[in-house]
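name: query_chain
kind: protein
chains: 1
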Amino acid sequence: MRAFVAVEVTGEVAAALARVQARLRSGRPVAEENLHLTLAFLDDQPEERLEDLHGLLEQITRPAFSVNLNGLGCFGGDAPRLLYAAAEPSAPLLDLQRAVSRAARRSGMVLQGGEYRPHVTLARFRGPEGQGVLPDLLEQGLGAGLPALVVRSFALFRSDLHPAGVRYEVLARYPLDCLGGGLG
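structure:
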């Protein structure tokens, strides 16, 4: 089963990001209900291994926290393939991401290497359609003043490819300690 661990993006933050997506002239926007901030991409995993991971994720205790979304960016250089809202790599976010990655490794998963670059994917592009997208959005003043994402939980997701696009299903949610984070 193809899976990942992420923070769900909903409410005011999802609505603000949907307004950015509505201004796109090209690309395939990520459906508002699919917006998320990935903590660990798990790739294809057997169900037993995901069950082991679930037990380890349940043991993660952290206070709730906020993540600032600080602008827009693209992956892919001169031929952008992905538009994203950048997330500030704050200490609480990086701590949670490391805890999730440790749990995945302890359950026997091999994670992709590389530096963690927290972001929320907004759209994907094929070929040259992403060229000029970021300057156009920045010229419109989009990406500035995005609301902070309040992280009160994270989730284990299943990812299924369908002819109409990808569908995500929450397999389990893991609450963070709202009292400890002072976010109520």
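note: Residues 180-184 have pLDDT under 50 and may be disordered.
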